[in-house]
């Protein structure tokens, strides 16, 4: 069986397919899955470029989708031939958050999905959305479920709500699609007019080039008639948070996802207080939330935007494409 | 000024336009509104046919929409020329339910909107949805807000949820439209194949003629693969509740709205308990919920289904049409 | 190892200790527990008297508490010597309800705890509350967690809320204690002045003998100054529900637990609707809810009321005592 | 009628009782209230020391309690002789937050309660808790309701939860009392061992002198066995927030109230994200929340801690005492 593992020292140049022992047959409660697709996340990039030295030797990639080829005893939820997709937190099945680190996340604390076959507990997967191919299915695990959790689980999004999205990365584009599927109104920012044009084609109601309009927080609020956005999906972090607080309505909700502008920084806490706003930290979501998300996707209204697809053996090139920042939506890996 | 009032004894034959004193100019915090449309509800029919003898002399109709023609001092939310729509509970502005009767509901405990002009506190209205005419706007007050409250406020509806609707009355058709606008999956029942066909044309995913399939609770559950519906909008009451409990999923939600089959009856409480389901009584909603609903409608995705329109002077005929049960959606009154 | 199993046909006379094979050592993820205590529930009585003929040969009793005597590989939450207590739904770990039957409940669908030793997954237990003996700990599993779920999980109980309890069975007495621990105000009914006196000694603020005052729903509402109770813990079922609806406030919450007066009956659904009240079916709760309940009990403010204690070999007599209805609080089984 | 108004320029030295016109009789929906007590908040200190120059001429003090001496037409909630207490946001009656500034807060944007009589809408008051004198009642309006909102409304506090409080100011001491009334476990910090000793006497389970133990965030988490606090009442602001994030559990809740250490500062946003924690900004609460809080206080379990009482004419001295920081609980003003 072929797999990719992180070399020592870690480096994109060392991401090469190598032979690995076959994982064998599934034990009780387990599945054997023939993997066929993954997508890249900012988190994967961090691991693959050595931000986590303890990952030496680990198989990278948090997202994985493929076909069930064998089913262990006691498994009733899946059958041979089912298309399945992995869970970012295989131990977080249900309920309020239980995890605050990546020690059990595939491709970080444990082996990920840059390989041909895995044998894992059935509870580490959900069904894939109907009519999604492996790359599309893989895209739901990290970026998709993050956007779903931010808007739907934490935000209780409803039709008519105003959603502000920062940039056109994987989470933001998923959030755009989810928000439009549920009747919300969406504003989105980017430094690229071309990307904003694409977002508008996907239903964005208001677009803003933050290079042109640096006081974008106020601009968004003005666009809402002074009321402010109900939800902000904050993928930027400290560098954008002050303006997100400016843009959100009194009593509004900011999903804190991002570390793109750093892990720490100046935050106007008094403004957050007087806005009576909620700043909700989150990392992806539970398996049960993924099951609900899959039901929503089974409706067929949306599919992830796949920027491009690389074969597994060109994983390093795919990461380089991610680093370039020129993509729109998800970068797929397919095998 | 012309108006219709309930005669003594109350009877449809006595619903005639008569001259009434003009309400004059608005005082502080009030609006003067030139009314142009209403729609009929089951509740209005009850009042108009004498189920509430204390209503003698009252102006009927809970729904009212029209144009602001004068604004009292201190009113900042509305301006002359704004299109507005009335609130079913003018005293319930916000927050959890405060009212358990109709003593302050227009057309029941207080005068309703079967008249040309009213002067009322601004807090008794919200803006009308953009691009709705007066009849369409009036349709949101009672039936629309009831459906919104059931699914969105109480039910926290999300894309992918399964919604079961009973019949094709005003609340059910609104619920169908709201559910589809938010990406949900909808099953609907009727005794008319023709009405089911229309519902299917509006996006219903599964239709069921309960005259053909009397064990419809089980049929719905089978259709969901045994899981059951997430939400049931129960407009039937005791005569249908047992099957609604059969149809709902474990932990699901039944909105109890209906008295169509009576005010009391046999209920399998043990089945409700073991389903761990919620049976949530509700009557319409608060003004703030109506404001949120209007924002959702401003998106332009849906408009109420108006079965037909009667002029105000033919209100009695309109009620007779309602009694016939042949309508689909709302019966409008226009003047 | 000694155990009690349900004979064939099932009957209290056949509940006798017999020799059973020892369960052996724990496998991966499992615990071996030396059991020392249980308590009786209405549900257990139903099983033990043959309401569920399929239970022939089953070890009865849903509640079980004891000491960990061996720990399987991979178990980190428990250590040898820990006092633990069983879970009513060993498969419902967390999140919204997943189960609507008793097919996996100990003492019903699977073997229960009327035995000396068990080997089960660690996830079928939680830690016992500090300073609780085995009988006291066992009392939390069914009756205690039901009361906690009704008031705290579903009801979001807060200080100052008014709670109405029906009768002085195990759930009601737990609910009384939980409500008082959290600063709520409690009304309780009974047919026995002596039991009401005991409830008053435990902090009940208002007591009512329903044999003396048959219109108790109205009496409770009058006592609240007409506002009504925030929460009703409905252990009676259809025979009491009409008055519970009368007693609850607009927008209030009725926990539907009981089948004491039957599985089905006449319910005034229109009254529930116009009260805008929630009738929430429930069966016990999840393991995570039990963990939160244990944390609350670790504070040491309350302990279950144990009416009396029977040795395991006198289980039949304990059930007869339960049938007599003379107990107050829980009937313990100790070995 | 006597009153105190802010001079020009604003300064504590200019806070002197002066004669003002009597407010006269109440109009429709209004109350005339004879005021007898107030308490000082950090917010009042800011106004009184000129942080808000626009307040020149304004009557200070956000908290006010006294006796109803006349009732306008249409008021049914209050009668002459009732003890009442003011609302921090007289226009925020119910529901989710509506206000993000102090433009309608007594003693800031509008006249406050440093006077003998007021005539105001009945909706600007609630009943005072039973058996509270005027100073005790006044203490609930700002500090008390803030603590209640943080823990009970936003936090859904339950017995067994772990609450971390920073310092022994008015909000923290109220939070300590509310948390203990509802069965929670409390840790509290201070720089004064004497104050910690007093907090322990009021039920605090764990006390920590942050001058001695500067890494207090970790210390609190260690004390919880590594799990972390469920709720942190963050009155410090940016200077303490990093350690509060360290102390909170995964999925926990931090109420952001404080500006004591500044309006903006370095915040470890990535740590908040990976804790999946909620940072909830808030300012006091709605009138309906105050009504619920009063019901909780009517139980009689707790009364505010009044550090000392000054007569109204010594208001300047009372503010100087507040600035010294030596108080524990609330500083009362009585007349």
Automatic annotation (TrEMBL), chains A, B, C, D:
<dbReference type="InterPro" id="IPR036291">
    <property type="entry name" value="NAD(P)-bd_dom_sf"/>
</dbReference>
<dbReference type="Pfam" id="PF08240">
    <property type="entry name" value="ADH_N"/>
</dbReference>
<dbReference type="InterPro" id="IPR013149">
    <property type="entry name" value="ADH-like_C"/>
</dbReference>
<dbReference type="Pfam" id="PF00107">
    <property type="entry name" value="ADH_zinc_N"/>
</dbReference>
<dbReference type="InterPro" id="IPR011032">
    <property type="entry name" value="GroES-like_sf"/>
</dbReference>
<dbReference type="InterPro" id="IPR020843">
    <property type="entry name" value="ER"/>
</dbReference>
<feature type="domain" description="Enoyl reductase (ER)">
    <location>
        <begin position="11"/>
        <end position="333"/>
    </location>
</feature>
<dbReference type="GO" id="GO:0016491">
    <property type="term" value="F:oxidoreductase activity"/>
</dbReference>
<protein>
    <submittedName>
        <fullName>NADPH:quinone reductase-like Zn-dependent oxidoreductase</fullName>
    </submittedName>
</protein>
<dbReference type="InterPro" id="IPR013154">
    <property type="entry name" value="ADH-like_N"/>
</dbReference>
<dbReference type="InterPro" id="IPR052711">
    <property type="entry name" value="Zinc_ADH-like"/>
</dbReference>
